[in-house]
Write a structure and sequence with these properties.
By secondary structure, this protein is α+β, with helices and mostly antiparallel strands. It has two helices and seven strands; from the N terminus they run E-E-E-E-H-E-E-E-H. The chain has a single domain, classed as Alpha-Beta Complex (Nucleoside Triphosphate Pyrophosphohydrolase).
């Protein structure tokens, strides 16, 4: 399922996002976005019509962090994560596809986010005491950066 175009049904929603890592002075950082409830998430979102997973991931990263797609180097597909999402008016299965990207520059630019979030910032790895919203994202980051 890496990078292909996927549809979304009434009961299933497909989204794409990224783990964006930057290395500055030998220190690794990951870009996270803070939701209105104060918890942190990886940049991700729904696919636009006709968009591939990788295109959607890059667009969402740009919208939620301000990083340009040309500043990102694709490293690999991190897989798909499914969970049931409940909202007051609906219930659906959400499939989130994540990709690992490296920020190409040797400096940390300030990040900016959209109106749906409070802020977007770089967090030094390993992540400690960061209140992640979703357990699967916390586990993904833990598995990816284990031992760092």
């Amino acid at each position: 399922m890496s990078g292909g175009e996927l549809g979304t049904s009434d009961n299933e929603i497909t989204s794409a996002g990224g783990v964006v890592v930057a290395v500055v002075g030998g220190v690794e950082y990951v870009a996270l976005v803070r939701r209105k409830d104060g918890t942190w998430v990886l940049p991700k979102g729904h696919l636009d019509q006709g968009e591939t997973l990788i295109q959607g991931a890059k667009r969402e990263i740009q919208e939620e962090t301000g990083l340009e797609p040309s500043e990102l180097e694709f490293e690999r597909d991190l897989g798909a994560f499914a969970f049931n999402e409940f909202e007051p008016s609906k219930h659906h299965l959400k499939i989130n596809h994540f990709f690992l990207f490296r920020y190409r520059e040797a400096r940390l630019p300030p990040l900016r986010t959209d109106d749906m979030h409070m802020e977007s910032t770089w967090h030094e790895l390993p992540l400690e005491r960061v209140a992640m919203c979703y357990a699967y994202q916390k586990q993904l980051l833990s598995d990816l950066f284990q031992g760092r």
